[in-house]
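[Backbone geometry]
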Amino acid sequence: MKDTKIQTLHPDADKINKLISLEKYEVIRSAILDILQKGPLSHTDLMEAIHQHIHGHFSGNAQWYGETVKLDLEARNVIQRSKAKPPLYSLVSIG
């Protein structure tokens, strides 16, 4: 059976992000949303939290997929990157 793919987006409209497995996308997306519901995190802390969240039940490079899906969620306006130093990632407020 052929693996279903998703074309991920990039926050910079001039860049093309990766075509990845939809199944892996959904695992990482769910992890990021669960993690950021607890509050904003730096890039380093977010990547570490993703690794801890999926460790043991994800085949693939958690950091690579984490970065790819993080960029996609930024482009889709699901999460946002602050202008603080260091930048913090958080869920976009609705309303």
Notes: The first strand starts at residue 5 and ends at 7. The two ends are 41 Å apart (CA to CA).
